[in-house]
Design goal:
Elements lengths: L5 E4 L2 E4 L10 H5 L2 E9 L2 E2 L2 H14 L7 H15 L5 E8 L16 E8 L4 H6 L1 E7 L14 H12 L4 E6 L2 E5 L3 E6 L2 E4 L10 H12 L4 E3 L4 H5 L3 E6 L3 E8 L2 E2 L7 H13 L4
Parallel strand pairs: 7-8, 7-14, 11-12
Antiparallel strand pairs: 1-2, 1-6, 3-4, 3-5, 5-6, 8-9, 10-11, 10-13, 13-14, 14-15
């Protein structure tokens, strides 16, 4: 995995070493900002419209102006991908409220600051083939998880604890109701039906989540967007996470308990195949 050299910052394209972040940036003080991670396949952004719409909704929720507009951001990101010659990888875009003296109130005269860069990232073929083991943890995040903000400390702590316990990820729950994982959405399969938490304020409205549900619907796989419990997770026939970088990755065990046969299941494999077709992989 290597990082390409050209960044977009201050509405200019610069080498990484020329990027200068103010120590008074509110993203640094307060996590006062939003971000998006786009997946690039074959030089093209995947589901770009959905990502930009989520970015717009996050900005609206945080009362964060986007002076470039979505069209301006789209143009800059497309040019960044072209300048870096990115074929397969990701684009990270971050927008903060800007630099101002430290004060909880919104600054009257600060201008939002945008930063974007690209990274070469291979598809996670091995984990998608073998599956992952996860643990469960209390969901201690705030109540606007639908906004993709820079406030990720609870997610970081959950992911770190999972790693320290030899797991790939942490599945979060609120009083026994599964929400999502530290960085992905969660789906289970029971009796041929696909279950996932509703897209409300308790989860991020994942772009890959939406694609997966669309692919399931096209294949006449029953879908239930409803809360499900930890017990339902433990008793699932299959389970998997969905996300921009993990695509559709099977879960083979939760808290040391096997899911189904302890191996990726047939419906998961079917959805993986449909997803591969959607991104142009034969």
């Amino acid at each position: 995995m290597t990082m390409t050299s050209i960044y977009w910052y201050g509405n200019a394209f610069l080498p990484e070493e020329q990027v200068r972040i103010s120590p008074h940036d509110r993203g640094y003080y307060f996590g006062d900002g939003i971000y998006e991670v786009f997946r690039v396949y074959g030089g093209r952004l995947f589901e770009a419209d959905a990502h930009y719409e989520r970015l717009r909704l996050s900005a609206e929720g945080l009362k964060l102006p986007l002076p470039w507009g979505i069209d301006g951001l789209r143009s800059a990101i497309d040019e960044l991908v072209a300048r870096n010659g990115l074929s397969d990888g990701t684009v990270y875009l971050q927008i903060t409220r800007g630099a101002a003296p430290r004060n909880h109130l919104f600054p009257a005269d600060a201008a939002p600051v945008a930063l974007a860069y690209t990274r070469e990232v291979a598809r996670p073929v091995r984990t998608m083939e073998e599956g992952i083991s996860v643990i469960t943890q209390d969901d201690i995040r705030w109540l606007h998880c639908n906004y993709k903000t820079l406030n990720l400390l609870a997610n970081v702590l959950a992911k770190q604890e999972a790693a320290e316990r030899g797991a790939a990820d942490a599945i979060l729950h609120r009083d026994g109701i599964v929400t999502e994982s530290s960085a992905s959405n969660v789906m289970i399969v029971k009796d041929g039906a696909l279950l996932t938490h509703p897209a409300n304020n308790l989860i991020l409205h994942g772009v890959t989540r939406a694609v997966t549900l669309r692919l399931a619907g096209a294949g006449e796989i029953p879908v239930q967007e409803r809360p499900f419990t930890l017990d339902e997770l433990y008793g699932a026939d299959e389970a998997f996470v969905t996300g921009t970088t993990v695509e559709i990755t099977p879960i083979v065990s939760v808290d040391g308990r096997p899911i189904g046969a302890g191996a990726p299941g047939p419906l998961t494999r079917e959805l993986q195949a449909r997803f591969a077709s959607a991104i142009g992989i034969a």
